[in-house]
Structure prediction request, 348 residues.
Amino acid sequence: MNTWNNSAERDYNLRVFDEELNDFLPGKIFDAHVHIAPPDGFLPCGPFDCAGVLLTSYTYDELAADLKTAFPNRHTEALCFGFPNPKYETARNNAYVGGSADFQRFFPLRLLDPQRDTAEAVNADIERHGFLGLKPYPDYARPGDVANAEIPEMLPDWAMAIAHERRLLVMLHIPRPKRLEDPLNRRQLRALCTRWPGAKIILAHVGRAYYLRGVTGLLDDLRELPNLYYDPAMVQNWEVIAYLFRKVPVAKILFGTDIPIALAQGKAVEINHQYTYVTPRPWALSLCDEKRKLQFTSFLNEELRAIKQAADAAKLSRAEVAAFFYDNARALVDEVAARVAPHRLKSP
Ligand SMILES: [Zn+2]
Prediction:
C-alpha cells in the first residue's frame, strides 16, 4: 500500500473534497487516464518517483483502494495503461495491464513501442487480452532524441492501420517542446485523424496545454475532427478547461486524471508563460516548498477545482457535467469492448 499523504494531509484532502467538490461531482466517475504497473513493474530501474512518493508497483488493487479514498461515495471506473518508459519490461507490463483488467470497472490499453513491436505481436495481444487500444509515447519513438519525436514516428502506419481497422482508442501524449503551439504537431495530428477515421484519438492533457496561452486559438482547426477526443488530465488551470468546454462539444471531452501522479500533493502553476509544479516533497519536475510556506492538497483536487470553476464559467448543465465525468468515456469503451473483447466481458 502506498502512503501518498500522511494522515493530516489525507484529512485535509477529504475536507477540501467535502467543502468544495462533493456537491459538484456526479455519482459515477470514469477516469480515462490511469497508469498501472505490476508488482516490481519498474524493474530493472529503481522505484518510480511519483512527485516525491516512491512506487514499486501500481496494481489494480492499489488503484481501487486509492479511488475509494480520492472519490468518497462515488462509483469509479477507469481506462488503464502501463507507465510508458522503454527502460521497463514493456511486454510484462502490458501482460499485467491487459490480463488483470476486469472489463467491468477497469479496461486496458496497450503500450506501443514502434521500435520493438510488430503488427503480429500487437494483433496477438489484442486478441488474447482484449486491449481497447494503444498508448504510444515520445520516449519509444525516437529514443536518442525524445524531445523532437514526431507523431508519425510514435504511431507508424502499420500501427494506425490496426487502430483504424479495429476501430481502437489511441491515447496520444503529443510530443515536442511547443506541444499544441507547434504547427507541425497540429498538422500531423489533423493528418492522423483524417487518414485513419476508424481510430478514436484522445488528445491527452488537452495537448499538454497547462496554461491558457498553450491552447488559445489552437483548437479551431481540430474541433471539427469527428474522431478526436480530449482529456484534461493534470490540467489545473481552470481557464484552459473553460476554453475547452466553450470550443469543443462536451461529448468529445473525457474526464481523466493521470493517477497515480495526481494523488500526490502539489499544484501545477504558470509563471511567465511557462509552467512547473510546486510540491511539498522534493521531485525532479517541481519546485519544492522547502520553507514549508504552503498547505497543499492533491493535484487531483486542484484539477477537480479547476473543472468545477470551468463548468460554472461555461454554464454546463448537470447532464453535461455527468456526461463529461462518466457517460462519454463509458460509451466509447462499451462500443470498442463489445467488438474487440467480447471474450473478456462478463455476462451479467
Ligand atoms: Zn499519463
Summary: The CA atoms of residues 242 and 310 lie 4 Å apart.
